[in-house]
Amino acid sequence: MKREQKLVVAVVVLALTVVVLSYRTFRRQPPPAVTRQSDVVTAKAFELVDDNGQRRALIGISPEGTVGLALFDAEGRLRSSMGLLPDGSPAMVMQDAKVNRCGERRERMIRG
What we know:
The protein is of the alpha+beta class and 112 residues long. It has two domains: 3-33; 36-106, Outer Surface Protein A, domain 3. It contains two helices and six strands, in the order H-H-E-E-E-E-E-E. Strand 1 (45-49) and strand 2 (55-61) form a beta hairpin. The relative contact order is 0.08.
């Protein structure tokens, strides 16, 4: 083969390699969350925010190790919460728009 023919063959092979690699790299793929489903999500807290970035709900663990759910109104005021007290007893609190308690329920665990 002449030198010019070898050069043309090398350029064609290089161009095909670039096309194949580019296709594999840049082809459109759905995001991984769409293509696979996970059975478990692990986190220390979950925070839901509205379109304005305002926190509306929080599920988390307190520094004391108790778990709870807090619900906030559009202005960011805590309106309802439920969780476990340090002794494991459940508790629920509801507050009006002025953040006055309008309902509260606590149950002590009965051990037996």
